[in-house]
Amino acid sequence: MHLKGQEARDLLIRNLWNRVEDGGVLVVIEAGTPTGFRFIHHIRELFIMQLPEKAFHFVAPCPHESMCPLATTGRDWCHFHQGVKRLPHYVYNKGSQARHVEWDKFSFLVIRKGEGPRQKYSKEEDAPTAAEKSYFWPRLLMPPIKAGGHTLVDACSAPNNFERLSVSRAKPHTMGYRFSRKVMWGDLWRFPKRVNRRNAREY
C-alpha cells in the first residue's frame, strides 16, 4: 500500500489500532533507513502523546515508553537486519551460488493493547516470570564489538538511555561474558549492566 503524506499514515495507524482487540498486537515494519526510522519514531510518539499510559505498551524493540534516545542523535537510527535466501535467478545474476544469503535491514515496532509489565511492576525484581522480567532488559542496537578479553555492547535501556556496556572475561560468569561472545544484534541483555560509557557514541 502506497500512502502519501503523514496524515494518511496516521489515519491508517489509528484505524488499524482500533481493530486490535485487548491484548492484541500491532506490528509496524519499515525499511531500515533513516527515513524508515523516522516513520517508526513518529508512530511511537503518536502512541506516547495521544494514548493513556496503561492503554498500550511496547513489546519490541523498545525496553521503555520514554523518549527514543536514538531520535536525538541525528546520526544513528534504530534498525536491525535479517538474512534472506535469494531466489535462484538472483543467485545466478549476482554471481557465486555460495553467496546465497542477503542481509536486509528494517526498522519495526511491536505494540500490544493493554497494560504491560513495565506498568504493572516498578522494577524487574517484582515481575514473577522470566517473560515479564524480559520487558525490563536492555536491547542491543548495534553488533557487539569483540576484543581480546572483553566485549562492548551498545544497548537501549530504560528510562531512555543509549549506552555502551562492557563485559570482561575477568568478571564472574554471571556478568555474561560467554553470552556476549555469541550475542547477536537485536538480542536482549539479561545480565547486570556494567556501563562503560553513558553515551554509546561520541557525536
UniProtKB/TrEMBL annotation:
Keywords: Iron, Iron-sulfur, Metal-binding, Methyltransferase, Mitochondrion, Transferase, Transit peptide. The keyword Coiled coil does not apply. Pfam families: Rsm22. The keyword Secreted does not apply. Transmembrane segments: none annotated. GO terms for cellular component: mitochondrial small ribosomal subunit. GO terms for molecular function: iron-sulfur cluster binding; metal ion binding; methyltransferase activity; structural constituent of ribosome. GO terms for biological process: methylation; translation. It is found in: Mitochondrion. Mitochondrial ribosome (mitoribosome) assembly factor. Binds at the interface of the head and body domains of the mitochondrial small ribosomal subunit (mt-SSU), occluding the mRNA channel and preventing compaction of the head domain towards the body. Probable inactive methyltransferase: retains the characteristic folding and ability to bind S-adenosyl-L-methionine, but it probably lost its methyltransferase activity. This is Methyltransferase-like protein 17, mitochondrial. The gene is METTL17_1.
